[in-house]
Specification:
- The chain is about 5% helix and about 45% strand.
- The chain is mainly β.
- The strands form 6 sheets. The chain has a 16-stranded antiparallel β-sheet that branches. Strands 8-14-13-10-11 form a 5-stranded mixed β-sheet, with no helix packed on it. A 3-stranded antiparallel β-sheet has the order 7-9-12, with no helix packed on it.
- Strand 4 and strand 5 form a beta hairpin.
- It is elongated, with a radius of gyration of 38 Å.
C-alpha cells in the first residue's frame, strides 16, 4: 500500500507466497543476501511534478528501509532536476571575410541538463539550407568554402533529456570567402619643391596574420618619365630615398638603370603594370624588402631643382593570401597649386571583395600645433574619381559630410590624428570595388598651399 503525506512516500511491503502453508514460515521471503547479490530487491516509482515548476527545480529523494524489527537503512539522497525547456543552439559570429578554409564554432544554452549534441546548417549564396553536421558533440569544425561565395550558418542543440530546438532556417552569422582585397599600388603626383615644399610620401606596412616576415616593394620617383604623358614642368632629375621612422636612410637611388636592382626592374615594371621607363632616363626606381612598420620616401631634385613628380609604391610580393603583410596607409605632403599642379593620389585595389577606405585632405590643421607647417592650404577640397573618370565622391569640409561621427570613429581606429570640429579639412569614408581610383586635392576658390593627402585601409 502507498501513502503520500507532505512530500513523504511510504510503502509497506509484505512478502507472502500464495501457495505457502502456515507451517512454512519462511516461504515467500527474500533469501539471505550473498556475494552473488541473491536476496537483494528494489522498489521503483515515478512522480509527476506539480504544475508551474521552473526549469532547474530540484526534486530530492531519500529512502528509509526497515526489515522487520531491524534498524532503518537510510539511502543516499537522489536528486532529479526538472528540464522542460528545449535548448538554444547558436553559431558564434564569424569574421566578415574568411579564407577558403575557416573555423566555425557553436554552442548551446540550456539551464537544465545541458546541451550535448548539435545539428549545424549552412546556406551558400542565399541558397537552400543544407545540414552540414548532424548530431555532433563537437563544438567547432573546419569548413571548406569556395572563393567569392557567402556562407550563412545556424545551429540547433539537443540536451541531456532529449529536448531539441526546432530548425529556424535563419542565419546566426555569415562570412564571405575569398582573398579579400588589398591596396597594391599607391602613387602621388604633385609639384616637388625644396625645403618645406618637398614631396614627402609616408606609407605603412602591417604585419598580416602569419604570412611572410617582410614585404617586397617597388618604389619609383618619376620625373622625365612623365613627359610621355604630356605633363608640363616635370622634375628633370629626381632622387629617391627611403627612411625608417627614426629618420635613418634604408635605401636610395638616383638613376634607375644604375641601381643594385636595375636588372630586375624592367620585368617587375611589366608584372606590376607600371608603365615603362626609358633606358638611361634620370627617373629613380628600386626594389626593397621591408618589415612591418612605417616608412617615408622623399624625392629631391638635383641641385635643388623643382618640378612635377610622381612618387609610387607597388606591392611587389609574388604570393599573397589573407595572412600576408599589406600596404595599409599612404600619406603625401606637398604643395597644392592650380590646374595641372593640384595634388593627385592614385591607388589600385586588387582582389575579389570591396574595400573600405578613409581618405583625407588636411590643410589648416597642419598649421596648428604640434605640426606648425607654414603656408598651408586654407580650404582643401577632395574629389574621388574611378578608372573611367567618373566622380565617385567629393567633400569640402569634413564636419558637414554625411556622417562626421563615423569619420571620427574610423579615424581613431586607424590611428589618424584628430581634426578639430568645424575645420576646413576634407574627409570621406568610402567602400570601393576592386579597380583603380584617383583622389584629387585642390584648393577652394583656387587656393594654394601645403596639404597632406592621406589614404587609410579601414577594413
Amino acid at each position: 500500500a502507498g501513502l503520500l503525506l507532505c512530500g513523504i512516500l511510504s510503502d509497506t511491503l509484505i512478502f507472502r507466497s500464495p501457495t505457502a502453508t502456515p507451517r512454512d514460515s519462511l516461504a515467500g521471503f527474500l533469501p539471505p543476501n550473498d556475494a552473488q547479490h541473491r536476496g537483494e530487491g528494489f522498489v521503483t516509482f515515478m512522480i509527476k511534478p506539480q504544475p508551474g515548476q521552473a526549469d532547474g527545480t530540484e526534486i530530492r529523494n531519500i529512502a528509509s528501509i526497515v526489515f522487520d524489527t531491524n534498524d532503518a537503512i537510510i539511502t543516499n539522497e537522489a536528486v532529479n532536476t526538472l528540464d522542460a525547456t528545449p535548448p538554444q543552439g547558436r553559431v558564434t559570429t564569424l569574421a566578415r571575410r574568411s579564407g577558403s578554409s575557416f573555423q566555425v564554432s557553436w554552442s548551446g544554452l540550456d539551464l537544465g541538463s545541458g546541451a550535448v549534441a548539435y545539428d549545424v546548417w549552412v546556406s551558400r549564396n542565399n541558397g537552400p539550407w543544407e545540414l552540414w553536421l548532424r548530431d555532433t558533440s563537437d563544438t567547432t569544425a573546419t569548413f571548406a568554402g569556395v572563393s567569392g561565395s557567402t556562407y550563412r550558418f545556424f545551429a540547433t542543440a539537443r540536451d541531456g533529456v532529449g529536448w531539441s530546438d526546432a530548425p529556424r532556417f535563419a542565419a546566426d552569422t555569415s562570412t564571405l570567402v575569398g582573398l579579400g582585397s588589398r591596396l597594391v599600388n599607391l602613387s602621388t603626383r604633385g609639384v616637388n619643391g625644396t625645403g618645406g615644399d618637398a614631396m614627402i610620401v609616408g606609407f605603412y606596412v602591417d604585419s598580416g596574420t602569419g604570412g611572410a616576415p617582410t614585404k617586397r616593394l617597388l618604389l619609383r620617383g618619376v620625373g622625365p618619365g612623365l613627359n610621355r604623358f604630356s605633363v608640363p614642368g616635370t622634375l628633370a632629375d629626381p632622387r629617391l630615398d627611403l627612411f625608417d621612422l627614426g629618420g635613418v636612410v634604408l635605401a636610395g637611388n638616383d638613376d634607375w638603370g644604375l641601381g643594385t636592382t636595375a636588372a630586375q626592374l624592367p620585368a617587375e615594371f611589366a608584372r606590376l603594370h607600371a608603365f615603362g621607363l626609358t633606358t638611361g632616363s634620370a627617373d629613380a626606381a628600386m626594389l626593397v624588402d621591408v618589415n612591418a612598420s612605417g616608412y617615408t620616401a622623399r624625392v629631391t631634385g638635383a641641385a635643388d631643382s623643382t618640378g612635377v613628380t610622381l612618387v609610387e609604391a607597388y606591392d611587389a610580393d609574388t604570393v599573397f593570401d589573407e595572412t600576408s603583410p599589406r600596404l595599409v596607409n599612404l600619406s603625401t605632403r606637398g604643395r597644392v597649386g592650380t590646374g595641372g599642379e593640384v595634388l593627385i593620389a592614385g591607388f589600385v585595389i586588387s582582389g575579389d571583395t570591396p574595400k573600405s577606405l578613409l581618405i583625407r585632405a588636411v590643410g589648416p590643421t597642419l598649421g596648428n600645433p604640434p605640426f606648425n607647417v607654414p603656408s598651408v592650404l586654407a580650404d582643401p577640397r577632395i574629389r574621388l574619381v574611378d578608372g573611367a573618370g567618373v566622380t565617385v565622391f567629393e567633400n569640402d569640409d569634413w564636419s558637414i559630410s554625411p556622417d562626421p561621427l563615423l569619420i571620427t570613429e574610423i579615424s581613431r581606429r586607424v590611428s589618424a590624428f584628430g581634426l578639430p570640429t568645424g575645420s576646413k579639412d576634407a574627409v570621406m569614408v568610402v567602400t570601393l570595388a576592386p579597380g583603380s581610383y584617383t583622389a584629387i586635392v585642390s584648393g577652394a576658390r583656387d587656393g594654394t598651399g601645403v596639404a597632406l593627402v592621406e589614404l587609410y585601409d579601414s577594413d
